[in-house]
Each structure stands twice: as C-alpha cells, then as structure tokens.
Amino acid sequence: MRAYLPLLLSLFLVGPAVAQPEPPAASAASSEADADRRVAALAEELKSPFCPGKTLMTCTSYQAYQLRKEMHEMVQQGLTDTQIIAELKIRYGDDVQNPPQPWYTFFVPLLPYVLGGILVLLVVRHWLRRGKADAPPPAPAVGSEDAERLARLRARVAASDDE
C-alpha cells in the first residue's frame, strides 16, 4: 500500500499539468453563443426607438438590426448589461428601457373570469331568493274550533252541490 502512495500522489499532481486545455475555437464559439443570448435578452427588455410599441428584438427595421449588431459588439468588448443600457439611454433617451411592471399585472388576464364568476353567483343567488318569495305560504295549522267550522262548511258545500 505504501508503495502505491507516491505513485497516486504523483498522478494527482501531474494530472492537471498533462490535461489539455480546451481548443480556442470551442471557447470562442461558446462566448459567441453567450454574447448572442445576452443581446437577445437585452433586446427583449428594451423598447425599440425605431418601432413604437415593439421591443428591440421584435422590431423589423434595418436600424434596429444595426443597433442589435452594435449591442453584440459592445458585449464582445466586455461591457456589462447596465453599461450597454446606459449607453443606449444616452443615445436614445430614457424611453428605451421598459418600466418595471407592477405586481398586480399578473391578475389582469384573470379579471374577466373572476368578474364573470361573481356575476354568475349573484344571479343564482337572486334566482334562489326569488323562488322562495314566489312560493305560496304554508297552510296555517288548523285548531279544533277551526276544524269543526271547516267540517260544517264542507258539509254545506256538499249539500248545495247535491241540489
């Protein structure tokens, strides 16, 4: 076991020195892909100064294409996202950056369904209450005196029908 210890130790020390570095073409390709992703993310965030109401990514004008290329060059030069946004604000004004959206904008698409559900509940509640109000009142309980009187009236009606 002790004989193998120096051999293992030398492998751990020499191994990193022998390892071959990644070829520069592959690292350049990965940095190019990272730059493309950063530019695409920035272009999705920023408003286009050339197409009102569109982001820089969805704007189809030639000027927007040129600006995306310039942003790509800025990324390759090593500028951070905030530096790129600051540069674009200097050129095109503060309108380039989209304002942050408030937290409640998530619920806006759900609002018609919520209001529709409340409306349905109110209508059903109204129908149920209206149905109870339209129902005839229950017959009052008949006492012993009323029962005798009712029996006499029925007998009189039956006698008049026989005639």
Question: Helix and strand layout, with pairings?
Answer:
Elements: H1 4-18, H2 24-45, H3 62-77, H4 81-92, H5 111-134, H6 144-162
Helix pairs in contact: 2-3
Core attributes:
rod-shaped; Helicase, Ruva Protein, domain 3; 6 helices; 163 residues; single chain; 0% strand
- Unreliably modeled segments: 22-26
CATH class of the domain at 25-99: Mainly Alpha
| Helix/strand class | mainly alpha
Helix content: 55-70%
- CATH names the topology of the domain at 25-99 as Helicase, Ruva Protein, domain 3
If you compute it from the alpha carbons, what radius of gyration comes out, rounded to the nearest whole angstrom?
Answer: 42 Å
* Shape, per Cα inertia axes: rod-shaped
Number of helices: 6
The largest sheet is: none
Average pLDDT score: 81
Strand content: under 5%
Superfamily (CATH H level) name of the domain at 25-99 = Cytochrome C biogenesis protein
SSE string, helices as H and strands as E: HHHHHH
> Architecture of the domain at 25-99 in CATH?
Orthogonal Bundle
Got a strand count? 0
Distance between the termini: 131 Å
